[in-house]
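This entry is set out below.
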Amino acid sequence: MEAKSFRKAGHAPSLLSAFLYFDVSFMIWVLCGALSLYITKDFGLSDTQKAAMVAIPILGGSIFRIPMGILADRIGSKKAGLTGMFLTIIPLLWGWLGGSSLLQIHMIGFLLGFAGASFAVSLSLASRWYPPQYQGLAMGIAGAGNSGTALATFFGPQIAQAYGWHSVFGFALIPLGIVMIVFAVLAKDAPNAPAPKPLKDYLSVFRHADTWWFSMFYAITFGGFVGFANYASIFFYDVYGDGAHPGGLTKIQVGYLVTITVVAGSFFRPLGGWIADRIGGMRLLLVLYSVISVCAFAIASMPGSFLVMLLYTSVMMACLGMGNGSVFQLIPQRFSSEIGVITGIVGAAGGLGGYLLPTYVLGPLKQSTGSQVTGFLVVGSIVLLTTLIFYAVTRSWRKSWAKAESGVNF
């Protein structure tokens, strides 16, 4: 009965379109991370350079998400989505036919940020179709497009092994073209979308302290997810690969492990939104942040078995994915009329967190200490501090806008 009510409450073709757009875009956005073991071999990069290479696409996505969010509010999510997919063709063609220097790889990676910016469009498309009581589930389903990471980490290394890593960018044009057609046919802007406003009115959300709090909290959940998803191949191969240990994991096997880890984070996102609708995103996030911190400290113990490590990383990624869904159960309740731009801003913060994680924490600390341990000790400490801050902030939210009489669980 509840599933039937959910289907009747919104527009299923648009929700499917939002998921597919985000899914194929996310697959493309993380290609540098999925192919990192092959690209870095060609250019002989240091630990810090490897981390920066996989993080640049995340930075590009962070920068492009805000203008794409504003564009979705001004011209509609459908037109904005088609524009984003068209722009994504540029770096794919460049990666397929060029990419012969490290500078070109960095520029290609930055332009892959157009794909990462899909977040601001797909979630606003889904959100506007559904009432408050279904925001967590609707945003979770659209946001499950994170699963595109699994497609990249599973198929990318295999195609690169067979045809070279450049060809992976060319193959990616095929699913992108298919999704563009499906999106053009099925997606429809919600009739309740607000009228376009002057640019200064959209940017006025920066004046709200809650904009910055949501950005910080999402920088932990989404930033942790996408940052580790891009760095995971380097991490697993460094610790358990055949380059470090005779008889260790091959690059293809590492791709399988990363895929399992990423799938845990991707497919738990809708579950996080669904649970948040029932018990409240604030309650759920407090638990999730605590578990994420424990998992980061457990990873820092560097167990000898890669299966034990896979368990730690998968639980951490599952909680990060559920946290993503939980944050976006709350945001539409606070910023219902600015959902496009606020999604862009908060999404940009999430992407920035994903950029900072490998570039300024995991990569440099690995290079300076010779071990991955310190990096995850720092991550665990950051998340623990965030948990305490989140608890304090949400107490004030319950006294202002997150009140029980609204009929929504917080």
About this structure: The chain has a mean pLDDT of 89. The chain is about 80% helix and 0% strand.
